Please model this.
Amino acid sequence: MRLDQFELFDSHFHIIDERYPLVANDGFVPSSFTLSDYLTTMSRYNLCGGAIVSGSFQAFHQNYLTDALKQLGPSFVGVTQLPWSVSNEQILELDTCGVRAIRFNLKRGGSESLGYLSSMASRISEIACWHVELYVESADLPNLYNLLIRLPSVSIDHLGLGGEQFKTLVKLAEKGIRVKATGFGRVNISAANAIKDLYSANPESLMFGTDLPSTRAPRAYSDSDFELVIDTLGHEAARNVFSRNALKFYRLMDR
Model:
């Protein structure tokens, strides 16, 4: 199969540039994965844009992200980590650079704490129409369910990592929360079954991403993950998951 027959908005990938600060997370510091490395890896795909996501090892540093977004142009957006104390002016400045969301990394840390999720979600939505993205295990979702469905706009990484509470993720998708079809090598359930269930619950929910360079994942991203979506959903539904849903969510559809 030709990888370039579908437009792809890569909804979740990382740039690791050693020219900028990296912060050890539980003793882990990732290897370099530059913007050049990413574009080389994706050269066989029909890439129409994507979302650069700040990792735990980048904490609240922004320069690596704004530099990459400047080079990539307006079809790419940023998902950053910010402290509760961030000023409105800083949020608007980052918005001008292409940042569109704040990430709460509940699994690895490196982000603001969960206690600020509701207040920050409301604030960034009002100021800049941003949303929040969560790296969270599905086991924690039942306790967060009522909070999450009240937030202005939310997405959840890596299929919620699967697990016994995956059914709660499906319920959240029914309520309009987006789910990233990413990190298939991280989940402990059938990615194909998860994709099928989530798409059935809400065809606009799923957004595919490579999760490159797959730091700390038991299995790194491979082309077979892309092909799995097509085999599971068929061509037309796959187009929604590969680009249309994310372009709408990140407010890029008119570009």
Q: What stands out?
A: The first helix runs from residue 35 to 41.
